[in-house]
Amino acid sequence: MRVGIDVFGAERFFDGAIRGALDLAVLADRAGVDLLTTSDHLGFTRQAHAERVRTHAFPFPLEQAWPEPLSLLSAVAAVTERIHLGAYVLVAPLRPAVLLAKQIATLDAVSGGRARIGMGVGWQEDEYAAAGIPFRGRFGRLEETLAACRELWEAESPSFDGSDFAFDDFHSLPRPVQKRVPVILGLGSSQRNFDRIARVGDGWAVTPADMPDLEAGVARLRQTFVDHGRDPGAAEVQVLLPVQVRDDGAADFDAMADAARSAVAAGADTVLLRPSALPVEGAELDAVVAWLVSLTDG
């Protein structure tokens, strides 16, 4: 089992200071956490936010800050040494492919080869409208965006002809340190999405809706890798642990440990925790991180 920490919302432990996420990153890096992620939205309309709260119990207020992930991860890279850096998940189609490729390649170069990015398509049509990007066709745009990134990262003479953009013999440096930057796609459990992952991705960031059928989903994903001529064991499966609390309102770490072990038994190999979602205070972060790392002991 690999363990990860999601630093989204960590400012609540540091008197509202966004840079407090860097202190949490240093703590996790030194403790032996494998992966650090954060979450992504460019913004919300008030109406779309209220609807998401109503229909999906969206847990974040409209006033919640959403630092741009690749900017934050670059800052994290500067203060850490070994932890991998990712997103759970980046709404990739909102970024121009050439710019996104440059940002991730720069992050990988600055961090010495530690980028491990989660990508998805998001859910908010108003967010796409605000960015001037069509909401319709976003799944195909995600696949084309990642394919274009791989071309820019890996090809000797990068060329791409997509539905919305194209380039020919276009060289964008620096290139990533890694031969292949791992990209984990956060998509719903469907054959079409698993085919997308097998074509251009390296794994699956599981959505909360798919957690009850995780074992079946993982089996389907790995078979899809086989069908595409890829090693099924190479498909990484990431899950974000749901918060569980005791009757007295305290975090139930025993129940969450059981949930982590169950996820691994079902096929997950990376389990993430978001401390800001827990009913804990800043003084308890050391203990929370130590607990997270202890999950790898067995």
Automatic annotation (TrEMBL):
Its EC number is 1.-.-.-. This is TIGR03619 family F420-dependent LLM class oxidoreductase. One of its GO terms (molecular function) is oxidoreductase activity. The lineage of its organism: Bacteria, Bacillati, Actinomycetota, Actinomycetes, Mycobacteriales. Signal peptide: none annotated. Keywords: Flavoprotein, FMN, Monooxygenase, Oxidoreductase. It comes from Gordonia hydrophobica. Transmembrane segments: none annotated. Residues 17-251 form the Luciferase-like domain. It comes from the Bacteria.
